[in-house]
Specification:
By secondary structure, the chain is of the alpha/beta class. Helices cover about 50% and strands about 10% of the residues.
Length: about 240
């Protein structure tokens, strides 16, 4: 029995896999999905998979926590700690109770490959870190959206922001009120733990690959995006 298991299709796959999987579970925002999409082909050493369907009616009709846990329960059996696989829940604090957040953490904390990362109050604070030099006082999600729109003059597509991701990581770390706690006081200044996921992606790709991503891949994709938008607008 053990030999058959050892040489099963799944067993061979695990032993021969040369890359680690990074499973990202955003809670539902299309902006989050669009942002993380660009990390999919950053390195041959990692494979980034985003588990989200922003058009799924079931997702819209469930609480974010319930949807995330349901999706996590369906995670592939090929997830393997031995090759460095990891799972990341990316959630916002706004419109979510403290109890819900702790419930999610409680349900996944025993799985050593899963981590809950929070943006307080929402992902926009992480996006603002790409173009800010200091933390922002406690603000509503709508206020952050307005600030992001104003600072960037509306140019806040992920491709506009990602070239400054190192700035975002540095500032988010400096402004983290408690790096050792997954959920610091939500009444403190705005903060985002997304930097932990980006650091993980950087650590599992090479410095050269990440530099190519910043200096070549992103500018090329941004040029393509702007050309596509220019063509679309000229056709109206």
């Amino acid at each position: 029995m053990s030999k058959r298991n050892k040489y099963s299709k799944e067993g061979i796959h695990r032993q021969s896999r040369k890359y680690s999987m990074i499973w990202i579970y955003p809670e539902g925002s299309k902006r989050e999905v669009d942002y993380f999409e660009y990390f999919k082909n950053i390195s041959s050493r990692i494979k980034v998979v985003i588990n989200n369907d922003t058009n799924n009616e079931q997702q819209k009709n469930r609480s974010a926590n319930k949807w995330l846990l349901d999706q996590y329960a369906k995670k592939p059996k090929t997830i393997d700690k031995a090759v460095g696989d990891s799972v990341w829940f990316v959630i916002d604090v706004d419109r979510k109770s403290k109890e819900d957040i702790y419930d999610l953490q409680t349900n996944v904390k025993d799985d050593k490959i899963a981590e809950v990362i929070i943006s307080n109050p929402c992902l926009e604070i992480w996006l603002l870190y790409h173009c800010q030099d200091e933390n922002i006082p406690k603000s509503s999600c709508q206020a952050l959206k307005n600030t992001l729109q104003e600072i960037t003059n509306g140019k806040n597509h992920p491709l506009d922001l990602l070239p400054r991701i190192n700035n975002a990581v540095k500032l988010a770390k400096e402004c983290d009120p408690n790096p050792n706690h997954f959920f610091p006081n939500p009444d403190s200044a705005c903060y985002s733990k997304v930097y932990r996921l980006i650091e993980h992606i950087k650590a599992n790709s090479t410095t050269e690959e990440f530099n190519v991503f910043l200096e070549k891949t992103l500018p090329k994709k941004l040029a393509e995006y702007r050309q596509k938008n220019t063509s679309k607008n000229s056709g109206n």
